[in-house]
Amino acid sequence: MRTLLTILILCTSSLYGWGLRGHQAINRVAVMTIPDNGPVFLKQHEDWIVHLAIIPDTWRIPAEPTLKIIEDPNHGWFKEQFSELKEIPRSRYEFVIALYELQKKQAVKDPERARLTNIRWTGTLPYAAQEEYERMKAAMRRYRAMKSGGQDTTFVEREISASMGRLGHYTGDGAQPLHDTIHHDGWAGENPRDFTREPRIHGRFESQYVEMIEVKPEDFIKLVKSPKKLDDPFAAILNHLNEAFSHVEEVYELDKSGALADKDNEKARMLVYERLAAGSQLLRDLTYTAWVESEQPFRFNRQGGNPIDPKGPLYNPATGSAPPGPPVPEKQ
């Protein structure tokens, strides 16, 4: 008998990045590569972190419409749609407002394009990832305090594991090129290279091909680089999405050549391995960075105070907050 999760996945397959196999492999490799000076206690929760890899997609079912509305955008970043934005705001709410202003301008010159300049069809993936990263860091700070106080850390370990598991879904989706483009379900607009406009290319690449080659953690774990502390997690997330975006046409070329129907095609196989490894690497590095940062004394962002303080220099009354700045460099 099929499990409820399997039925949900089959019923909504067009929503899922990497499918169950790919997402779980990404999370497992991330846990396996946590360094000895990192949060090694998470290795005890590996199976739980792996289980959670697919959960954010189960929040996208029409049966829970309020949840679907908020969650759907968290799985994409269709950057061509808002290419006029010179700088990506660091606040989800600042991004919403910037997008609204852009949509009004586009509506005058290009109504058809403006029709898709909205939260659902631009995406909010980097914000979902950054928010989950900060939840994990906050929990790690409490873990350290509890550990040093001789308290039982069982529940906070589960809390940290849950954040890592969910974060892995977003880093995994971001690593999939078709989650970072307006060409997510078939080529959109002008098509000089005659790429398919068929929506099913999305599933052919991220699910059907991954299942065909029976991806396993050992297939790509060696492609994951050594752990590093990220100087600016939000910037690292954006760079991760940009790198995946650079492979969009490659996916379409592989599909056009029939490579996605050939389990022995080396180029297709290696692209899948490299993209899965990228998802694991960012998840592991965000987890390691959160661990290192959680040991530091509490520091405000570059505005020097509480982001909801109306007296702050960058306070925006439209959002009721000041957007966070990049991390303050540590004094040498």
Spans where pLDDT lies below 50 across 5 or more residues: 4-15
Secondary-structure element pattern, one letter each = HHHHHHHHHHHHH
Shape: globular
The percentage helix is 40-55%
N-to-C CA distance: 60 Å
Task: Write down the Rg.
Answer: 20 Å
Into which percentage range does the β-strand content fall?
under 5%
Q: Please, how many helices?
A: 13
Identify the notable features of this structure and list them briefly.
single chain, mainly alpha, 13 helices
Give an overview in words.
By secondary structure, this protein is an all-alpha fold. The chain has helices spanning 4-11, 19-32, 46-51, 65-71, 92-109, 111-114, 125-148, 154-175, 201-212, 217-220, 233-245, 248-257, 266-293.
What would a concise description of this structure say?
By secondary structure, the chain is mainly α. 51% of the residues lie in helices and 0% in strands. Residues 4-15 have low confidence and may be disordered.
